[in-house]
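Input set for joint prediction.
Command: fold jointly, output tokens.
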Amino acid sequence: MTQRALTASDAGLLACLTCGLLSRRPRRSAAACPRCGRALHRRKPYALVRSWTFLVAAMVLYVPANLLPVMETESLFGSQSDTILSGVVYLWKTGSWPLAVIVFVASIMVPLLKMLAMLAILIAVHVGVRVHREDLSRLYRVLELIGRWSMLDVYVVAVLVTLVQMQLLATISPGAGAVAFGAVVVLTMLATISFDPRLIWDSGRVLGRPR
Amino acid sequence: MSSLLACPHCDLLQRNLEIARDAIARCARCDAALYRPYDENLDRPLAFTLAAAILFAVANAFPIVGLELRGVETSATLVGTARALFDENMALLASVVFFTTVIVPAVQLTAMLYVLLPLRLGYAPRYMPLALRALQAVRPWGMVEVFLLGLLVSLAKLAGMATVVPGTGLWAFGLLLLAIAAAVASFDARAAWSRLRLAR
Amino acid sequence: MPEAVAVPRRRFGFEWVWLLPIVAALVGGWFAIRAVLQDGPTITISFKTAEGLEPGRTRIKYKDVDVGVVKNVTLGKDRTGVVVTAEMSKAAEDLLVTDTRFWIVRARISAGAVTGLTTLLSGSYIGMDPGKSTDDQREFVGLETPPVITTGLTGKQFVLRAEDIGSLDVGSPVYYRRLEAGRVVAWELDKAGTAVFVRIFVNAPYDQYVTTDTRFWHASGVDVALDANGLRINTQSVASVVVGGLAFQAPDDAAPHPPADENILFALFNDRAQAMRRPITIRERYALVFDESVRGLGIGAPVDFRGITVGEVRSIAPHFDRVKRQLGLVVEIDFYPENLFTERARAGELTTEKGPTLARLVGHGLRAQLRSANLLTGQVYVALDFVPGARKVSMDVARQPPEIPTVPGTTQELQTTVASIAKKLDSVPYKEIGMDLRRTLQLSSETLERINREITPQARETMTEARKAMEEARRAIEEARKSLASVERTMTAAEPLPAEAGDALREIGRAAAAFRVLADYLERHPEALIRGKTGDAK
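tokens >
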């Protein structure tokens, strides 16, 4: 093992993200993986642009996702609108505090943290920080893992809507907040997926210019 | 070249060494998990995939859970849940739910079967790269376990006011979860890729 | 260059892992087979409208048990109705025969009941009533309204012939002693259009009380009658007020009759009285001549013998008697000897062949008289009774109709007595008494003031006397009031006034007189209030 940190990019090699094969980068043309045929790029194309777009969109939609009701309950006793937060409060008040915690973490904290983390990573890449890059990398990997769990509340609403269809006794219908929330989760996931984590370790080199 | 690999997270070139059982190779620089011990065994992932496929069929065919209140009964299947959202004019949400809980697992299972079966029988299927690529692409979008947790949260919410009737689909669903996880975990893509000869 | 690692070729060894899919397959297969076996038949039912039916959700229920679920609702081929496809459970397979009926249960208000309200909460469902046939069937035509009687109900059907339908409708209740005993199932107009046939279903165990002697009558709504018997309000139940109904009962005093067979025809009367009336088979016409006013007597007024209705007034007409040169009023009545001579009637010995049945009684002093039925309404009826000391008269049986001699009615006497009472009451000098009272009270109050200042035993004594007099007056007035009450009662009973009335009136007169004397004296000797009456030693 050499002491110098040599990246594939330094060595003029392209790593195939699908099958892992390293192959030499052709001089001037676009490259394809010899084993699996996938188009090869040094870094994910438009990673930063896409990531920023998705992230900003997610942040914008986060507001209506929390303000608009995700669920409307109609029963003989009247109508009731629930936002994500009021759902958590209801769970807490009725004594199911483990559930309240789960929903709160999954539906309020996680998306928020995801967006903030992604924001931090993107800013770090743009600024060109060289310290704590391991932590940023780790942060990214955590984001990859937990991203999907924010969808929890969407499924909760979906199941409730499906089951509670009892005409006048009780009927639940989904609210606009649910769509917004689902969009937020999808967008943050897309932001994470389209980002290239190798960019964290590229700082110090000039971005965007092929070597 | 197959003795070297680049860390997908920090691009560092490292040697592709064989590691001991129960060990896991990590990137020297950024500590990302790189690979697990090379596992040529195709029986295990295949068995898990088959079990998962059957369970997937059962989980979708029978209702997962039912609700009963004052003589009124309703029930939910996976597809039915997406359908219910669709009926409420939430087509976008319905498609997201449908995609993440039905399409993605189906794609995963199909792709794995498509690759594993021929490999087990000794040859590489024609569209193996495509299948493996699809498998990798949909992996972050599979949310069956999140759905299950969401289901449990809803049931906990409803248990107080109505009678919850677990259906056949519920057990199949839980087992499906485990089966898919086991199948994906025991499937070593590198072993599959190594079967492919280089085009050039 | 690292060396390739030699990987031993794996033999085909059985790995435990393969148990998993095998087990999964077995379990899955078992569920699948079970589902297929449990699948019942699929049926189609056609309705006019699918209102309230939801595919996948609406259930089919028999005796409140889910036996099927609606799978699909489509328009019928000719676009005039809908076709409902439903999957039935295995258990219900043998219930699907040719005369099985289906209907949609929605919230509805119909004759006799508001039903199905729970469907507002839980959604409509399809009710099912299996038939008795042995032929299987899978395509049905649904009923638009729930059937009135479903299989499994025991009881009997009967047909009633009525003049009009009244307020009856399909589903109207049938009552026995005010218990709901059955329902109207159907009705139709007689072919000649002269009567309505009403088909009813009487549930067990009430059907055993329908005997060959049972009478049926309309029990709809509220019966209000104001006649010679007074004001009567009669109703079976609130339901019958709303939706109409009919009742049945056998006459209580009749000998027990055997239970009626199914589908026997009965008559439907308009009310209970009519229904229970002993059927009149013999009618005799008599004439009564009155030379007093018959005001208050109407056609249909009862002819009464000591409280029993024995006939009915049929016609009233003036008649000039050339012999006596008098204008009289001839009242013709129908007399029902069966009501009077009930024992002979029951024994079947009653006959008019030997001449009018009343002939002998007239010879013994039976007369006809007009009596007041009700002072309030002024109604009058004909009373037949034996008059003591009546002249011997024998009925002229040759005349048609035979005549019953009459005596003056009590109305006249009553009027005279009332007039005299009124005169007496008139003669009481109320005005003077009133003025005297006022003056007395004035004096008394001044005197009382003086007495308040100086109370003397004489004044007290005089006061006591005055109080006594007033007490007497009050008592007398009280008695007078009581007597007047009894006078009122008396007037309705149409009997001679008791003597008490006169007594009471005299008392009033006396009390008033006493008071007047006292007042006069006090006027002349106001000091008596203080000093006492002169001559009264103290």
